[in-house]
Amino acid sequence: MTDIITANGSMTSTPSPISWQPSGNWIGNEGNWSSFPLRVGSPFQTFEVLISSKSTFTLLVDPIGCEPSAFTAENCPFYRGGIFNSNKSTTWQDEGSHQLLLEDNLGPRFAESPYFGLEKVSLGASNATGGPTLASQAVGTYGKNSFYNGLFGLNNQATNFTSLSNSHTSFISTLLSERLIPSLSWSYNAGAYYRSDIERDLLVDVRSITSAYSNGSTVNLLPQSILAFIDSTVSPIYLPQAACDIFAETFGLTYNSTVSLYLIDDKTHEKMVASNPNITFTLGDQSSGGPTVDIVFPYSSFDLEAVFPRVEDANWYFPLQPADNDTQYTLGRVFLQEA
Fold first, then answer.
1. How many Å apart are CA 1 and CA 19, to the nearest integer?
2. Measured between alpha carbons, how far is 148 from 289 in angstroms, rounded to an integer?
3. Model-level pTM?
């Protein structure tokens, strides 16, 4: 708490920001991403989740998501960051199944109808190391692989299950209303596995994307500037097809329509790792004019491995997806490694 003297001479206190430390572990079937410890239910069930800058609620894997099948990895609960069994919680308040529109603009792959309820949610792995605990938070459970790992939502809007009269305040807005944080501002780092180090929902103008090699040659990877959302819910970057074609030609990528990934064979992988070209995103906050900032990524930022059940056999891939239209232009979690 920070004490502030107001204009009339009275004393008021401003709460300090909350620092939610990552677990130190890496999860995901579309690359390795820094996870965050979360406890849900009574008694607590523990999870490692990823961060969604778009979601207004917490989304956890249901036990049916790890039932034996051809698409279920061995030790599935571990790889998916834990599974939530609402039947084992005494504080679960059922809200029924509702259609999830979290990433519907990115296509049918993300279509889900999670089972929702209100539940106790606590940041951190224990009372000693964790953050606050809030009751009656919106929690959804799902079984498909559309989102392989659980998600914790940082969007401050309310979750509306059926109507505005059935809305539930988001976790971050509840923190503010209970004076546990000073504002709705937040920051997030996705982690950079290739550096072994341990965001926000933004619309930015991507002026250009270029790649530079050690021999001095430069390639323009984006034919024209675009407006794109920064969204940590998904791994890849979604760009116009024309840009994807240039990326594919430049970096030796092959699009596999069966798994919807730009795959990289071992020979090309070794070549690109050895040459390690930089990829520079030039961003602005308006469509023309004004200041810009360059964010430089080493090739290793995009040197990811997809594993089962995303693919049958582990394979190198480049986290790029062709967008169907301009509403899908997205800078996903991979972008937040250096941004």
1. 14
2. 40
3. 0.69
